[in-house]
């Protein structure tokens, strides 16, 4: 618990509020998704009336999500106007210090998914009488996970690479040899 229960709105008691810009962005995205769901719920057929409409629950859920997004946006605007915790909000986008790393992670994950979709790599070899296959999953995941560990863990590159190779080799062996499942 905290000494100031009105200042923390997070699961992490030390996190505090998100910046007003981030809350406004989240409110906009949530409202857009909820409005899309509202439209799609209205497009569903009404077989026996409004009470039996298959889109009734999605419509009500989306409507409450729109309301929550509007409240989040109004709160963010008020905090932007009045300052956060009595302190003025700086001009500009008032982004957190790790925003660049978070965006880099998003880009890395998009590139990772695309690379898994389009990469076609497969090298097979025998070691200690067992047949091993190194495919696109292993190759791409080692590169991406090493980059992510280097950005967030900030250990030496060789340490990140060693952890990644060990973990991916373990997962690959378990899935391919024990579960007989191919990896993407």
- What is the string of helix and strand elements? HHHEEHH
> What distance lies between the first and last C-alpha atoms, to the nearest angstrom?
44 Å
**What count of helical segments does DSSP give?**
5
Helix content: 55-70%
Average pLDDT, rounded to a whole number, is 82
What's the arrangement of strands in the largest beta sheet? Answer: 1-2
Question: What is the number of beta strands?
Answer: 2
Report a brief summary of the structure:
This protein is mostly helical. Helix content is 60%, strand content 7%.
Helix-strand layout with pairing:
Layout: H1 20-43, H2 56-82, H3 99-118, E1 122-127, E2 130-135, H4 136-152, H5 157-178
Antiparallel strand pairs: 1-2
Helix pairs in contact: 1-2, 3-4, 4-5
Give a written overview of the molecule:
- The protein has 184 residues and is mainly α.
- It folds into two domains: 1-93, no CATH class; 99-178, no CATH class.
- It is 60% helix and 7% strand.
- The protein has five helices and two strands.
- It has helices spanning 20-43, 56-82, 99-118, 136-152, 157-178, and strands at 122-127, 130-135.
- Strands 1-2 form a two-stranded antiparallel sheet.
- Helix 3 packs antiparallel against helix 4.
List the defining traits of the structure above.
mainly alpha; two-stranded antiparallel sheet; flat
């Amino acid at each position: 618990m905290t000494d100031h229960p009105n200042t923390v709105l997070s699961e992490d008691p030390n996190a505090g509020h998100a910046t007003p810009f981030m809350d406004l962005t989240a409110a906009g995205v949530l409202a857009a998704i909820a409005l899309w769901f509202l439209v799609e719920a209205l497009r569903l057929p009404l077989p026996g009336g409004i009470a039996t409409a298959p889109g009734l629950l999605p419509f009500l859920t989306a409507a409450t999500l729109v309301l929550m997004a509007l409240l989040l946006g109004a709160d963010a605007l008020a905090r932007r106007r009045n300052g956060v915790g009595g302190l003025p909000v700086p001009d500009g986008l008032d982004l957190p210090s790790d925003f660049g790393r978070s965006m880099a992670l998003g880009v890395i994950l998009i590139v990772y998914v695309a690379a898994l979709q389009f990469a076609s790599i497969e090298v097979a070899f025998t070691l200690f009488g067992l047949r091993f296959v190194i495919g696109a999953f292993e190759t791409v995941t080692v590169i991406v996970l090493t980059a992510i560990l280097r950005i967030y863990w900030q250990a030496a590159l060789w340490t990140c690479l060693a952890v990644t190779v060990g973990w991916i080799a373990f997962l690959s062996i378990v899935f391919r040899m024990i579960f007989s499942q191919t990896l993407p």
